[in-house]
């Protein structure tokens, strides 16, 4: 068995998890934004870093209101989510300089939603060559920067 040394991930597998609790609602209710990697709070939606990122800077943008499906969102929530998505793309272009983005929504567990109970948008910055041999040969993805460092860079980029 191949092993990768990633001690910073221990917190995610050792902390007790309450499956009944929505992670989005829990992080929104908690005011420790830096610890929870909550980047932006707005009246209708918020942004946080994905703690299991596909790539450095993988963001999740969600409505503040607990809603599972895109059809449950109000026009104001939908507009606010899309505007915040645009702002986060612009922020990451300034701060991280990606060559492109994957932006997506997974509705339902069979569609890939890890947390199907709370609607959210994924914004994943991409760089030319970021899909090196590791995912193909080793079935692993290398994340080259810690969540805390990425959070700090993006927060500084917001000027907050």
What does this entry show, briefly?
The protein is 34% helix and 16% strand.
Model description:
This protein is α+β, with helices and mostly antiparallel strands. The protein has one domain (about 15-160): HIT family, subunit A (2-Layer Sandwich), CATH 3.30.428. The protein has six helices and five strands, in the order H-H-H-E-E-E-H-E-E-H-H. The chain has a five-stranded antiparallel sheet, sandwiched between helices. The longest helix is centred in the middle third of the chain and has 21 residues, at about 75-95. The N and C termini lie far apart (about 45 Å).
Which terms summarize this structure?
5-stranded antiparallel beta sheet; 16% strand; HIT family, subunit A; single chain; 34% helix
The percent range for helix content is 25-40%
Instruction: State the strand order across the main sheet.
Output: 1-2-3-5-4
> How would the global form be characterised?
globular
The N- to C-terminal Cα distance equals 44 Å
Whole-number tally of structural domains? 1
**What structural class do the secondary elements suggest?**
alpha+beta
Largest sheet: 5 strands, antiparallel
CATH architecture classification: 2-Layer Sandwich
CATH level-four homologous superfamily name: HIT-like
Indicate the mean pLDDT.
84
The H/E string reads HHHEEEHEEHH
Give unreliable regions as ranges: 132-139
CATH fold node name? HIT family, subunit A
Total strand segments: 5
Radius of gyration: 16 Å
Residues in β-strands, percent: 15-25%
CATH class: Alpha Beta
Q: Count up the helices.
A: 6
Helix and strand layout, with pairings?
Layout: H1 10-14, H2 23-29, H3 33-36, E1 38-41, E2 45-49, E3 59-63, H4 75-95, E4 100-104, E5 121-126, H5 133-138, H6 147-158
Antiparallel strand pairs: 1-2, 2-3, 3-5, 4-5
Helix pairs in contact: 4-6
């Amino acid at each position: 068995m191949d092993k990768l040394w990633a001690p910073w991930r221990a917190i995610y597998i050792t902390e007790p998890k309450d499956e009944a609790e929505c992670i989005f609602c829990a992080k929104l209710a908690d005011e420790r934004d830096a610890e929870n990697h909550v980047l932006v709070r707005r009246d209708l939606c918020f942004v946080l870093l994905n703690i299991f990122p596909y790539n450095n800077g993988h963001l999740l943008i969600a409505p503040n209101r607990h809603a599972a499906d895109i059809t449950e969102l109000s026009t104001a929530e939908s507009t606010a989510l899309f505007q915040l998505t645009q702002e986060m793309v612009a922020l990451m272009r300034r701060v991280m300089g990606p060559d492109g983005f994957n932006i997506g929504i997974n509705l339902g567990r069979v569609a890939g939603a890890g947390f199907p109970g709370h609607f959210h948008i994924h914004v994943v910055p991409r760089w030319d060559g970021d899909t090196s041999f590791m995912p193909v040969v080793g079935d692993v993805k290398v994340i080259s920067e810690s969540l805390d460092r990425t959070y700090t860079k993006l927060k500084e980029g917001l000027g907050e």
